[in-house]
């Protein structure tokens, strides 16, 4: 795919360069430095497993599930922390520009999940003009089953509150739990065929990596034959 817009990493570098140093910002920096040293979580659901499902909320607050929205189609599922996260906004806008159309051409559904209340999903969708599915995993049930659940450090939690951000009021389950930014590929049988987890939330899977994984793992030729 010819890439005409900057990568997520390039946009994050610009964001960091524009950040103003402060004691509050230092708390986030300390957390990010610690997270950059963390390995992939040990309890990660193995590739080849049935992908977990559960009750989800759409942006209007109606109950649904992955099975219902996918209808047997292969999918790329994006786990993000919330509409309040600047790195998540960068990532989802980039996927909008670089990923959504190529996946649609291949018959692959793009879905984004977070633990926010439904109005948070609506905010993310409207603010970034996202045409793909943006759903809430209200109790982090799917994220937990995948083994990608985490929470802010004490310092980052303090910094969030100093900036007026209280995850307990934004998350549907009234906790501070969030998923590690993750991209998962599900085949038409509902099997997890590829996953990429980022314990450091300032880094994300690039669009080109996702498309390469789709072509390698989702048997696109068979998908095309099925849809023809």
UniProtKB/TrEMBL annotation:
Residue intervals of the Thioredoxin domain: 45-219
EC number(s) from the headed UniProt entry: 1.11.1.24
A single cellular component GO annotation: cytoplasm
Catalytic activity: a hydroperoxide + [thioredoxin]-dithiol = an alcohol + [thioredoxin]-disulfide + H2O
Gene Ontology molecular function: thioredoxin peroxidase activity
Xref: PROSITE patterns: THIOREDOXIN_2 (PS51352)
Alphabetically ordered keywords of this record: Antioxidant, Disulfide bond, Oxidoreductase, Peroxidase, Redox-active center
Top EC category: oxidoreductase
GO biological processes: cell redox homeostasis; cellular response to oxidative stress
Disulfide bond found in the keyword field: yes
InterPro entries with a match to the protein in the record: AhpC/TSA, Peroxiredoxin_BCP/PrxQ, Thioredoxin-like_sf, Thioredoxin_domain
PANTHER family: SLL1159 PROTEIN, THIOREDOXIN-DEPENDENT PEROXIDE REDUCTASE
Task performed by this protein: Thiol-specific peroxidase that catalyzes the reduction of hydrogen peroxide and organic hydroperoxides to water and alcohols, respectively. Plays a role in cell protection against oxidative stress by detoxifying peroxides and as sensor of hydrogen peroxide-mediated signaling events.
Family (UniProt): Belongs to the peroxiredoxin family. BCP/PrxQ subfamily.
Protein name per UniProt: thioredoxin-dependent peroxiredoxin
Taxonomic path: Bacteria, Bacillati, Actinomycetota, Actinomycetes, Micrococcales
